[in-house]
Amino acid sequence: MQTALFQQWLTVLRAAMVNDVDDMCATLATVIQSEDRERLILLPLDELHSIMSMVQMFVDERCMWRVQFERFLKKTVRTRDILPSYLFIPGVQRIGKNAVGGGGFADVWKGELAGKIVALKVLRIFGPETECAKIFKEFSKEAMIWRQFDHPHILPFHGCCGDLFTPLYAFISPWMENGDMISFLKQNTHTDRLAMIRGVASGLCYLHNLQPQVVHGDLRGSNVLIDGNKLPRIADFGLARVADTQAVSLATVSYNGKGSLRWQAPELLSFTKDATECVKTTDGSDVYAFGCLCIEVFTDRPPFPGLSDGMVIAALLIRDERPSRPPAPAAQRGLDDNMWDLMQKCWATRRSDRPGIKAVYERIMPFTQWEERRDDREPFTSHVIRYIG
Ligand SMILES: Nc1ncnc2c1ncn2[C@@H]1O[C@H](COP(=O)(O)OP(=O)(O)OP(=O)(O)O)[C@@H](O)[C@H]1O
Ligand SMILES: [Mg+2]
Fold first, then answer.
1. Which residues are annotated as a binding site for ATP?
2. Predicted local distance difference test score (pLDDT) of residue 192
3. Is residue 245 situated within a structural domain?
4. To pair with 274 at 20 to 30 A between CA atoms, which of 92, 240, 266, 341?
């Protein structure tokens, strides 16, 4: 039995659909911004899932009310503490008998979805079932935000898969055949490295300019992948942040703490009065990490390559040191005085002294010829059925 509110909602949408899809979209936007919104959010779960799938379909179609629709979805997920059913994609196959790679809290498998090669990032979370479900939910909420991104230098996200690695879950994104940025640069030494850096800055600019702003929180070479057109794509948004907030649970289960300490701004490494207080990543700490990523791009090595993590902390917090200017071949790779000055500004000790990423991007721009390409994301909406019949 459908609730009266849901039936009323269907009737309004059916009437609008008689005209055209734009009309239906406009009607939907009006409904979710009216006072009915709060009541819609409290509908029974099956009805709510139908509404969410419909709203997401319009987001995927890049309709003009996209921002309002995304806000509605986020509020619904937060209020009801549910994951939308459209996030779970059926029909994913895995390729091969072993994972092709793995990081701090996940293994990466190659897979296939609708004839396309995809990457399946399987969270390595073991422990009591309720605890695992809670952690997965936190990851998925971050992934939901990731799903809405639409930029040529951001790795698209298709959805989750809950039935291939049971009881573990996987996040699905397109397979990046050229691997991570640092391995790519090591093998393709003649790549235009300034162009790579500018691509990453452009993706970061997009994230920082979103409303509300999105902070990456774990920017570094291994979290930038290279697509089939040899363009950089930023990956792994917010997942590290969830891993951090869930560190206690993850520590008891699986997290091996393979850290990204040397990309982290000093304020994130400082000891606070209250040891349990969590220092948040910000756009400023992303800019700091971006400066470190530039070191990787020019040298093919992480910042402070000769130092252990402990020595890096001492260098940063006690001696306020930063990486020194890399020798040849960095200069031939594009590290001139302008670029070096910019990187040092990104490393300013005080967050407020660092430039915004837009200023960074604009300062790199005159030195590179970069042709922005259109997003080639496949919306994968074909499996979303029309709910209003
Ligand atoms: N979409 C993708 N396409 C191709 N390779 C990928 C994709 N996603 C991840 N990989 C590869 O899988 C490996 C593991 O990635 P993962 O993000 O789990 O680890 P990491 O970035 O090294 O560390 P961390 O877990 O701290 O992010 C990396 O070598 C990465 O290049
Ligand atoms: Mg990664």
1. 121
2. 94
3. no
4. 240
Domain endpoint, select from 174, 189, 213: 174
CATH number at residue 295: 1.10.510.10
Q: Which residues line ligand 1 (CB under 6 A)?
A: 101-106, 108, 119, 121, 173, 175-176, 179-180, 222-223, 225, 235-236, 258
Catalytic, 353? Answer no
Number of domains in the chain: 3
Active-site option among 60, 180, 218, 236: 218
Examine the domain organization and report whether 168 and 187 are in the same domain.
Answer: no
Q: Centre a 10 Å sphere on the Cβ of residue 129 and count the other Cβ atoms it contains.
A: 8
CA dist 283 and 287 (Å) reads: 6
Q: Are residues 298 and 323 in the same domain?
A: yes
Can you give the CATH number for the domain in which 109 is found?
A: 3.30.200.20
pLDDT of 107 higher than 80:
yes
Counting every residue written for the chain, the total comes to: 389
Instruction: Summarize pLDDT for 126-153 with one digit per residue, the tens.
Output: 777 777 777 777 777 777 788 888 899 9
What is the residue with the minimal CA distance to atom 28 of ligand 1? 101
Are 295 and 190 part of one and the same domain? yes
Please tell me whether residues 263 and 346 are part of one structural domain: yes
In a domain, 242, yes or no: no
Structure tokens at 291: 């400066």
Cα(37) to ligand 2 centroid in Å equals 37
Distance from Cα 103 to the centre of ligand 1, integer Å:
6
Residue 291 and residue 354 share a domain: yes
CA–centroid distance for 359 within its chain? 22
Q: pTM of the entire structure?
A: 0.84
Choose one of 125, 157, 168, 180 to mutate for the ligand 1 pocket test, by most ligand atoms within 8 angstroms of C-beta: 180
The residues facing 225 across adjacent strands are: 180, 233
- Which pLDDT score, from 0 to 100, does residue 378 have? 38
**Three-class SS state of 120:** strand
CA 251 to ligand 1 centroid distance, Å? 20
Find the helix packing angle between 21-33 and 4-19, rounded to 10°.
150
Decide if pLDDT at 373 tops 50.
Answer: no
Average pLDDT over residues 321-348: 95
Please compute the mean of the pLDDT values over residues 354-368 and round it to a whole number: 86
Tell me the C-alpha distance between 242 and 141, whole Å. Answer: 10
